[in-house]
């Protein structure tokens, strides 16, 4: 499963080279973030961090969507011949790869499992140092966490005061 996620992320990354419209780029970044969050959840064995990562990216992309839709609202999306050919090529490769995996399941699965196990060992620094969330909120880091929470709260209040509805950077829609 994780190999297919990595392969899909690679295809989407290469597909972004051919996209010129900003809204479709935002959609590709959103899909990339969703796939990255799923992959991160699989490797860390907890989906808490990947969920927070996805929400942060989604919030940033929503702000970018508001700006881009107000600037380039009437621009049409055109698909070039290169983009159509790449999309067709990537779909064909994905289908062929899936068929190959189904036919040679044991041979392919052995190879992929060995490679993924090696990657997991490097990623998790061998299984004895898995990332644990219990180390995040303990007595040694309490002061630092409280300072970060207060800093983020003050920043939130400052951003709200700066972006007043009458003087903000966004134009009003009447």
Describe the model.
The chain is an all-alpha fold and 174 residues long. Helix content is 71%, strand content 0%. It has one domain. Helix 1 runs antiparallel to helix 2 and helix 1 packs antiparallel against helix 4. The longest helix has 24 residues. The chain is flat, with a radius of gyration of 22 Å. The protein starts with a helix and ends in a 12-residue tail after the last helix.
Compose a concise summary of this entry.
The protein is 71% helix and 0% strand. By secondary structure, the chain is an all-alpha fold.
Largest sheet, in brief, is:
none
Radius of gyration: 22 Å
**Total of DSSP H or I helical runs spanning 4+ residues:** 6
The low-confidence parts are none
- How would the global form be characterised? flat
SSE series: HHHHHH
What percentage of the residues does DSSP assign to strands (E)?
under 5%
Overall helicity: over 70%
Number of strands: 0
What number is the mean pLDDT? 74
Tell me the span between the first and last alpha carbons.
48 Å
Number of domains: 1
The structural class is mainly alpha
